[in-house]
Design goal:
Blueprint (H helix, E strand, L loop, with lengths): L1 E4 L9 H4 L7 H15 L5 E4 L12 H7 L3 E5 L2 H5 L6 E3 L2 E5 L1 E6 L2 E6 L5 H4 L2 H5 L3 E4 L8 E6 L2 E7 L10 E2 H9 L3
Parallel strand pairs: 1-2, 2-3, 3-5, 7-8, 8-10
Antiparallel strand pairs: 1-11, 4-5, 6-7, 9-10
Length: 184
Amino acid sequence: MIYFTSDQHFYHEKIIEFSKRPFENVHQMNTKLINYWNSVVAKQDTVYIIGDFLFGDKAARYPSLSKQLNGYKYLILGNHDIRNRVKNHTIIPGILNLGKYYIMTIHNQSVLLIHNIEDIEKYLKKDLIASINLIVCGHVHNNWATKIYELDDIRIPAINVSVEVCNYRPISSTELLKRGDSNV
């Protein structure tokens, strides 16, 4: 099974207040996010993390964190990942860096994975944007769950997979496509 998630902000104390997360402290948040992740993701599953996995320079904690999370993990860089100098192909042992965006096919649909929907035109040319059927993003936390991305005559459903709008768990590709279809 393939899953998608974004904006865990592991080790970010202030995100609890900023996004009104239902946790008492960062330790409880980290523990619950790991437990929620593992409640849906099996060891053989694949998870695409659409940015802002960690907050701050916590390099010493990276190896133990990735080992605690089930699945094969791939990261699309978010603004905090870039700011924290998360570069090259392996940033955290066990998590492969795919860059600032990634285009994949799910059930014959072209799906763009990008952390911030506002960055699409910075990285992609219009003809490539026009070939996209669905956008999967994060960055906006709990500001919206789905919307339509528009560029001139192009209209593409966009799904926010920030943990705040996904019950703090990764969502499956099946659920993702259902959300995309309901937004057309």
